[in-house]
Please model this.
Amino acid sequence: MLFKNYFTIVMGNGVSRLLSLLIFAILARQLSVNELGLYSLLITIMMFASEVMSPFDSYFVSQLSGKEYIRNNINIFFKTKVVYSAALLLTGLLLSYLIAKYFLKDTGNTRYVYLFLISGGFMTILTCYGSMHQANEDFLAFSLVNTLYNLGIFVALICIWSLKLKVNMLLLSMVYLSVMSLFAALYSVKICKTSHKVSSYSEAISKFVTLKSLLAASFIRLLSNRIDLFLIANLLTVTEIAKYSVATRVPSVSMLFVGNIMSITVSRAPSALKSKDNLNQYLAATAKLYLALAIIVSAVIVFSPFIIRLIAGGQYTDCYKIADILILQTLVTGLVSPFTSLLYSMNLTGEIFRLEMLRLVYSSLSIVILLYWYGLTGAASGLLLSSLLNMLLTLEAVRNNIKNLPESSP
Model:
């Protein structure tokens, strides 16, 4: 069943990844190198704004308890996402100005940052709707939710191309905002029809208090995941950012397989913690997946120069060494996912926060040092080294917290 659910998500998200690569390929041929670098940073900002709320989805799924649980609790998580989106609308302009001034080094980009920031807020509602299906183990519907918005953006770009319009940053920003707001409105209606009303706001507040450490950990984790791009943006040129961004598109092929593991394991982890026998079965099943993944990742590394040429053209082919290092980093990150799912299910929010804070510190140090010595290749290597260290620390944290499991389920 684990393999069936996994490949259901892989096939569904495979379409999403393909659409994402096609979108990038279209833009790589229509935007200048500097514009492509700016687009990469704006997408990073959008995803950051969305994923900072991901602990709500992970917590919701990890507390899996049937359809009635979903109906009774989804409204709490949904309204939290709505409040967050509204807060971005109200405060986002000031935040966008600060990001444009101190991160992008150009206040002229404020409006683009604002539009992508709001798009990220709306995207949290999409993930909220997807988590309903994930908690219900309807992984086909979950995959479709994660695919449709990319399809909408791809169709919009094809329409712009067919009308022979010039793609610029303002038009691109409006496309993302329009698509995200449209799907957010559609899914909001569906959630409201499915869920029960919040019966106790004190219960909602208690859930938020429970998740405050996870929210902090999520913020730190997102910084750690993107600290390479943030540091490159401040230390190197936009042209270098564009090259690094192209290199990151190749690992996205391997992430199609590696990145979906937590979507499965987070809903399986609660039952794995019932006994050592269940835990061994859980680990054995994920180990078989990783054996297959190692073969796939090896193939991606072999064909990385061809993939880069296919996606972005021949001018970026020399980025393949960076891409290969980042591919290995995605594999290491994927190896941690089943163990992170166990920590979520044990509600070890303080432990998760500690691990993410440590990861941010040694990621920043290793990337800055190696970036200074070896440029973009060094930045990728620093990210790989920090991921390896994070994996070891996470394994140790899980080992220390599963010692008292019973041998078998009652």
